[in-house]
Amino acid sequence: MKKLFLFFAVITVAITTSCSNDDDVSPDITTLNITISNSENYEYNLGGFGDEEGAGINIQAKHFEISYTERNPENNQIIYYYKPESNFTGTDFVEISKGYGWPNPVNSYVRINFTITE
């Protein structure tokens, strides 16, 4: 009986130790602060990505005429495009997620804070 108890005690310790969250990695967040006029277009190159990798809008901007990502098939660069509403002045932001590696992508985020002027 003591051997059985010892066996379960060792297994319990092994399971709880191996399931610790010590190796959790917080995602990398890049923040950009951009000032543009309400008649300007803005482009941001998110970089090159492999076939199983990519980027997309995680939180969409609120005051836009244009706000999307597009992959260039020739070089696999992904570009984010933004143009504010024509008469809008104030602040806006977009959050873009970037995923690398398959099957367990390491995500990073780009948050672009816009200050829109006349």
Fold and architecture overview:
- The chain is mainly β and 118 residues long.
- It has one domain: Immunoglobulin-like.
- 14% of the residues lie in helices and 53% in strands.
- It has one helix and seven strands, in the order αβββββββ.
- The strands form two sheets. The chain has a four-stranded mixed β-sheet with strand order 1-7-6-3, with no helix packed on it. It has a three-stranded antiparallel β-sheet with strand order 2-5-4, with no helix packed on it.
- A hairpin with a 5-residue loop joins strand 6 and strand 7 (106-117).
- The chain is globular and about 45 Å long.
- The mean pLDDT is 84.
Task: Please describe the structure with a list of short key phrases separated by commas or semicolons.
single chain, 118 residues, mainly beta, Immunoglobulin-like, 4-stranded mixed β-sheet, 3-stranded antiparallel β-sheet, 1 helix, 14% helix, globular
Give a brief description:
With 118 residues, the protein is mainly beta.
Protein structure class: mainly beta
Distance between the termini: 80 Å
Shape: globular
Calculate the mean pLDDT score and round it.
Answer: 84
β content, as a range?
A: over 45%
The count of β-strands is 7
Low-confidence stretches: none
Portion of residues within helices:
10-25%
CATH fold-level label: Immunoglobulin-like
Following the backbone from N to C, one meets helices and strands in this order, namely HEEEEEEE
Radius of gyration over all CA atoms, rounded: 22 Å
Oligomer: single chain
Provide the spatial order of strands within the biggest beta sheet: 1-7-6-3
Largest sheet: 4 strands, mixed
Q: Under the CATH scheme, which class?
A: Mainly Beta
